[in-house]
Design goal:
Chains A, B, C, D: InterPro entries: L-rhamnose_isomerase, Rhamnose_iso-rel, Xyl_isomerase-like_sf. Four copies of one chain form a homotetramer. With 388 residues, chain A is α/β, with parallel strands linked by helices. Helices cover 46% and strands 11% of the residues of chain A. An eight-stranded parallel β-sheet of chain A has the order 1-2-3-4-6-8-9-10. The first copy, chain A, has a two-stranded antiparallel sheet with strand order 5-7. The interface between B and C is large, with 62 and 61 residues.
Chain lengths: 388, 388, 388, 388
């Protein structure tokens, strides 16, 4: 099998999970711009996600956010997904949108609030039991805005206690994925601000606790691929939340801000077997299409991950290893750049045709009439947004 | 007059303008936490601002945000302010909260949207004519999220055209104050991202166009006091928007994150005569009290500016100049630090007593019962928030 | 002429100036690693620069650093350059490597040091008169390390005075190019820290004073292409110092850290006519090949600029403009990305063959035996390094 | 015992270690400015360190850097230190200043270079055996400058192997302290870039492997006190390298850039018992006095740590805890700020007098004539600098 064919073989099996919330309205603290035709409930989000999968062939599941996507009967939701060819994926817990959480959820100084937050996390595991989801993804907005506001160590104690209780609650085939984020919405301390904090907690929890790397959640200048490589070496990389940023957690389309960085990240993944058949890394998008249409925004995102992956797969690792061993700085860099500079769009078009998908997903979606259809259909009701 | 008395003399005349929006609810894109007793209209905001002035003695005006604070009759609003001992101050234009502004206001590629935005700016000048406000503060959220989305230069052309039209519309005693901001809500380009851009536009507009320095609107590592000193030297510093930040535009209480930086900024102001009787620099707060109570948050902010100012006034400039001229690095730094390390709270308590204000503004407010009163009174109606 | 041919036409005329100091040893404050065969005098630097031009065809001049490259007779130096097919280019003044400059050069509190620095700048203009150089590039390391160390405004006064004196000294066909840099070696204030400062000074000096954008000299998160577009619009962009960085002023090979950023910068240049025949923008490299061999490092750098330029030239500006005007965010971004994702290496290989240059400059240099030759020849004497 | 007396009791026992290299010349890659009277050998560095201790009373040991401070007989060196009232402290290994280390030391792709580096580390433990030093501090400049240059994971394997070998070599009362640093001199990857990496390695090594927090080694926006609190909670904080910075690793006088941050860090230390009698945290300075005189620079640094410590000790922890538990954001912040805003210089002057030290260390040193003496004495020979 040539490198090209080997690359296609991996690309054919690649799976990228879509976030249900990407299809709803989103924005900044200054304004949420409403778009036409956005979903009004989880079922419509599933329909939109299925369109992304239909046009790309590699996005066969949708992550849910609880309570945004809470329904009475998850079996019904699961069947709705199955009907359009996708699955329910990761369950994302939301303990940041209740007035009680003003000073934190599981790390709140008030035990009653902590209890409430923990109960919600348990409820999320209940949902997992019903949806058959493997992963519980935890992101805590918890932190403080002012020095002295709360005790940094005490908050870690509370965090450890909550994580431990949740981990205990999981069944043997379920995992806890702990996300970290430098800042926002907390502006002085964040209780899980970096990969080291997430890693240290996961280590204590056990085998099935792993770190989630959100590509937009780092301090300026952080080398993300180093973190990815380090966590892969430790067997502690659980999931990616893909997006991109120029400044802070901008939640732009993955690969839009720094496509070379995305390539370097995926090269570390490929290099460590992270795309192998037995890999348990979850590859998810986590983005906000504030000003661009949502479905094409997701399609473009999936394509960007595919393109970066394809380039990563084309690296001549033998030549690279030889140059590295020889201390040939420019030679080794040149091998990597040769792959990056390759135009992989023809390869991916070919792959799509082999998979029975239109080689031009953006064009195919535009021509499909789906955008016009949902704009016409989804009138009345309350559009889904963050919190809706 | 001793240094201490001279300092008090300046501090007695200091004026810090309060932003009407600081009294309403605010938050992040993740959640706006509602507080009890927040104002439901501009009149209630004025009442709250007057309380801050009553407890500090140095906050005698309130900045308005249009349309948030739009009323039918500004004479009525002005009288309401006068009745409680304060004035209406700077008019802040808001061209970022309408769905039409999704791709920009005055720099929007669509001429109809630009026209709408410009009309709003003209309407703001109409308000100024009625309130007697000197300053029109312009902050544009305009920018782009993705490379290629729009033409950077063309947007500058549109910006220049709008600024020029507004400047023409001003009367001879009115000023245009142009704010800059690195990013947010735009995540790739911002049309006025830095002081240089604002300065260049103001230079072309004329004498009465000046730059506004918001202390939270810079890239990491930016030396803000350098910018302040530079603009003062050029006669182009029009106003401050005071707040503080650890990460991005966190809009925390001024001085809360880096009190030494606030001191250095105010030292440059003092040093350049920016607190002299004939200075026309507007000193405003621009903050969001997301998790702390709003009125005490404003009182603390005013006190922080006072403390930093007091320290700046206590610098032994003669000794400083001598050490600087001698190239005595540690000596010169030591002179500055001597002032910074001084506990100026007794001096300010003394000043307050002389001004007939309680020496402990935070305590006095807590004891006043005002918080309990507004919590009881302001029930029903719609609480004012960003956009309310 | 097709887009491809039009692009080649511009690429054929492109000129990238090489810095003499890139061929000497360089390093960090921790260690300068010596390489074999590095030049021992300006003549050997010229020989190396000529090799880069021989292999690329677009690097026909060398920038000098005074006093590093000072010689008794510049006519002799000029002839040496002409003999190997290149020209002497920009003169870079160095007022940062004398013990007298510990607290600054032209902004030093000591007038005697200022005088010495100014004399050196005059001497650089003398050199220009003899080399026929058009541009005097000024980078001042001047600044302070500690708050209070010196007066920020007074240093601006001194800076303005020195710049004015130098500008007066220039003849009508000579230009002053003022570089800015956020920090290093000064760690608190830098006297020309950002483009705004450089722009403001240049504006006062006159037509022939322009700003130099060094791509590594910005705060994290700065949008460099915005600055480039803004300065081009103002007619104040004088020169580029190309390099790349992940963290601070890393001085890596241009395009190595963020090739997409380099493409966006060059797109703004192309878009504003900056590569037109009548453009007077100087495109220079300014890098330190600390661990990689110098000559191949320069060849790769030139190639990277070429590749980014080629992609910028391939943007379908008509389609882009249409998408921008229509507010089609994803469409406009897609047009830009289509050009970026194109593999332009075949186009450039073709161009090189047409220009009589080997299509594979890196390989051609490796095969040339030049590296072995200089390693053998340049033994003894003092290797050129920063300051040598 | 009042809070004031309790504070003095801790301050009396505080110990701050001085770095031998702070007394030698240092600088940036652009220039090392030579100062008069700097030491020419380790004995003269010891003499200078002893002066700092004489004037402050709390700096009774000196850290050595090997090979910079290598001598034939460490017993002689130890006696020289004892003679002037101080001890030899931490041994700092230097594997970054040999041409062999261009591509790394213990992570170099070449096994021979790794062996050489490891041998040096073993030699450092030999030195410890002779000096009686408890701590081996390891900072590796290892990393890469270009993507692809070397394999990130393989370098971690090599690092782990070297650390393990060194840890094995230590005796039961010796510790390995692993420092991390974001970047410089490596500009793409650093092999130990953050606390998480250091922590993960230390965890595997064992009890006596701990993390060193250098306050200048973080990405912009990093909350250092969070890291300190986290490591203290884990029992993994081994040492501080104190300095301060505005931009990158500026190595300025500790507390000079952000005294409030230093206070917050020390508050976490105090809060976690890090200054208790049984604490094994090493408090060291690690600075470069590039433009200021070295001995006064060290005295000022020690004083700055003392002042921040004194303020941290004055926090009313009972009131703080009560406000935190009540969710009183402004109240809790106010308690912390009350301590920070206190002028502790009188307290420290009093303490010094009680300890038999001049209450004004800077003045006392200036009056002592020591500066003039060493300037006169230390003529000829080679001044100690980085690498000397």
């Amino acid at each position: 099998m040539t490198g090209r064919e080997a690359a296609k073989s991996v690309l054919r099996a690649q799976k990228i999970e879509l976030p249900s919330w990407a299809f709803g309205n989103s924005g900044t603290r200054f304004k949420v711009f409403a778009q036409q035709g956005v979903p009004r409930d989880p079922f419509e989000k599933i329909a939109d996600a299925a369109r992304v999968h239909a046009h790309t062939g590699v996005a066969p599941s949708i992550a849910l956010h609880i309570p945004w996507d809470a329904v009475d009967d998850y079996a019904v939701l699961g069947r709705a997904a199955a009907d359009v060819g996708i699955k329910l994926g990761t369950i994302n817990a939301n303990v940041f949108q209740d007035d009680d959480y003003k000073l934190g959820s599981v790390t709140n100084p008030d035990p009653a609030v902590r209890r409430k937050a923990l109960d919600h996390l348990f409820a999320c595991v209940d949902v997992m039991d019903r949806t058959g989801s493997r992963d519980l993804k935890l992101w805590f907005s918890d932190g403080t805005n002012y020095p002295g506001q709360d005790d940094i160590r005490a908050r870690q104690d509370r965090l450890a206690e909550a994580l431990s209780a949740v981990y205990e609650r999981l069944s043997a085939d379920q995992r806890l994925i702990l996300e970290y984020k430098l800042f926002e919405p907390a502006f002085y301390t964040t209780d899980v601000p970096d990969w080291g904090t997430s890693y240290a907690h996961c280590l204590k929890l056990g085998e099935r606790a792993k770190v989630c790397v959100d590509t937009g959640h780092h301090a300026p200048g952080t080398n993300i691929e180093f973190i990815v490589a380090f966590l892969l070496r430790e067997g502690k990389l659980g999931a990616f939340d893909f997006n991109s940023r120029f400044y802070a957690d901008d939640d732009l389309i993955v690969g839009a801000a720094d496509p070379f960085q995305l390539f370097r990240i995926l090269f570390e993944v490929v290099n460590a077997g992270g795309l192998a058949a037995d890999s348990d890394i979850a590859f998810m998008l986590d983005q906000c299409h504030n000003i661009e249409p949502k479905i094409p925004g997701q399609i473009r995102s999936v394509m960007n991950v595919q393109e970066a992956t394809a380039k990563a797969l084309l690296v001549d690792t033998e030549a690279l290893g030889a140059a590295q061993a020889a201390g040939d700085v420019l030679g080794a860099n040149g091998v990597l750049m040769d792959a990056y500079n390759t135009d992989v769009r023809p390869l991916l078009a070919e792959l799509r045709e082999e998979m029975g998908v239109d080689p031009d997903p953006m064009g195919a979606y535009a021509r499909s009439g789906y955008a016009e259809q949902i704009t016409g259909d989804r009138v009345g009701g309350r559009q889904a947004g963050w919190g809706a």
